[in-house]
Structures are given as C-alpha cells and as structure tokens.
Amino acid sequence: MNATKFLYSSKPIYTISKRNFLSKLFGCCGCQDDSPPEVALTKESKIVTKGMCLPVIGIGTWQMKPEEVKGALCCAIGLGYRHIDTAFVYGNEKEIGDTLRFMVSNRMICRPQLFISSKLPYDSMKPELVKECVDQSLTNLGLSYLDLYLIHYPIGTIKSPNGLHIDDHTNHLAIWRELENQVFEGKIKSLGLCNFNTRQIRNILECARVLPANLQIEMHIYCQQKQLREFCKQHNIAVTAYAPLGNPSLDCYLKDLGLTSNMVPRPLENPSVKKIAEWRNKCPSQVLLRYLLQLGGVAVIPKASCPDHILCNIQLFDFCLDSCEMIELKSMDMCSKGRMYGSNIWLGTEKHHEYPF
C-alpha cells in the first residue's frame, strides 16, 4: 500500500539556527542542526491520495454565522484559501453557496480552483436518505459536484416528536454503498469519514468499491491522534485536523447550550507555544498550525471569520519548526484526555456500540 504523499512547490523555507537557545529553553539536547525539509510547503501544497488532491490549508465554517459567511469567504479566497469545509448541520451551506455564486459570476474565482467538502448529517444515517442529503447540499451550495463528502459521525440519530434519539441500527456499509453510487453518478469526487476509529475504518476498507480518501478528526497539540494517523498513513488516507487551535470559542458554545467542558487547556495559551511564537516572531496560532502541517499527511481547517485571523492562519509558509521545537510540541500530547469533543458534544452516544472514542 502506497503511503500518503505530498505535492509541493520547490520554494525554499527560511529558517534560522537557534540550537543553543532552544536547548536552554526546553532542556533538549542532541538535536540535529537546523536544516530545511527536502521540499517546501506552500499555500498551494496538496495531499494527493486515491485521486483526491486535498489543499493542506482550508477554512472551517462550523459556528460561522450566516451573516459572516460572505465577508469571511471573500477574504479567505482572496488570500489564497481554496479548501472550504462545511456540513449540512452547520446551517450555513446556503450562504456559502450564495457567496460562491457571487465570486464565480464576478470572475473572482472559478469552480475547478476550489475544493469543497460537506457531510452527511447524523439524522440521515440511513441509505435511503443519502441521495436526498447529497442533492440538498449540492442545491444549497449551488454546485454540480462536491470534491469530498464525509460521514459526519458514526452514530445516527432518529427524529421523533420528542426530539432526537440514538439509532441502534446504523449500518455503515449500507450507507457507504449508497455514497459510492453518488460518486458513480458524478455528484461526489471523493469520500471520507469523520470521527471514525480504526476498527470502523477497517470495516469499510474491507468492502469498499470507492476507498475512503480522507479522515477528519479532532487534532491539536493536546490530542495528536498518533495511532489513527499511523493507520491512515498505512492505508493512504489523508487526515484533516478540525479544531487545530483547540477551538477558542468552544467553552462559550458549551455554556450557552448547558453542556460541559472536558477542561482541556487552551493550546493558544501554552507557555512553550508562546515562547516559540515569540522567538519566531509569529502568532501562537501559526506555530500550532505549522506543527500539524509538518507532521505530514495532515491538512488543517481552522475556523475564522475575522479578516486578521484569516490572514494569520494562512501565513504558515515562510518559516519551519526545527527538530527541538517539533519534539517539544509532540511531548504535549494528552492522548484521550486531551479530547475536547467527546460525549459532552455527542450527547447520549457513549454507550452505543459504535461510539468511536
């Protein structure tokens, strides 16, 4: 099985030597002298896997208010973002579609330059509902095809007059077969999964006609998903990191809904991240995003609606973290204890046989 590979430009990355400084700062020793990677990441870099070309930097749209969409996406696309991640349940697909139509009609961008992903909602996790959901997202977004379509969560829900209930009969394989039919009809270019574990992915790999090209998972310095990343590398599956900055607004979101926080520290407030950022003359967010990109086979989709943050999040390609910095950031992994999105978000699913965490 071929490992995930990168397409890069040949533009070199600027880095400076600071071995002695970092040895004192982090207490590391025996690090190699600074050297640039064999190839340089740029904002045009893509992860190429199973026929999919996934831009390494994208803009997330969860919690992006409908009235914020046009300004945020026009700014992002103008700055070079080409990867837009959304989902039906985010409630802003229509506004994203309106913005894309506006930009294409005004020749600000053309459709083939964009990579757009959406997701099958949890309350439509039945094969007979797949076509309807895909068609609805295409209509909302004003598109004839999606570059990537993912199953949002491995556990389905059922609507009833009393609210949502967990579906005990979610059938991943039946859903996947119907998604494959949508690929064969030309409505979807590539398929992927969100929040699935290795067992669940393996079950799909064993019977799929269209293999999963992407896995989207929570990933940041406190939740680095090493085993899942290794599994994906072995099976030529690109990884997309959601909440790569830890989602600074998550606690407010949970509080507003009366939900609980997992009390994971904020990555942006990490002292070592701040020190690296200060030395590099970068923002902590840039250090966090650059770290994930340098792990290889990982794309990042930070959500931002403020123009300054959108700009900051794509200015990742004029510096390179060295081995001491990578080792220090890698040591911050809290494994499952670092997960911000668990049963506190996916309410009532923790006892389901398909609970992925």
UniProtKB/TrEMBL annotation:
Active site: residue positions: Y90 (proton donor)
Q: Which residues form the NADP-dependent oxidoreductase domain?
A: 57-332
Under Pfam families, the record lists: Aldo_ket_red
Looking at the UniProt record, the site noted as Lowers pKa of active site Tyr sits at K119
GO molecular function terms here? oxidoreductase activity
What domain of life does the native source organism fall in?
A: Eukaryota
Looking up InterPro entries in the UniProt record yields: AKR, Aldo/ket_reductase_CS, NAD(P)_OxRdtase_dom_sf, NADP_OxRdtase_dom
Q: Where does substrate bind?
A: H152
User: What PANTHER family does the record tag this protein with?
Assistant: ALDO/KETO REDUCTASE
Protein name according to UniProt: NADP-dependent oxidoreductase domain-containing protein
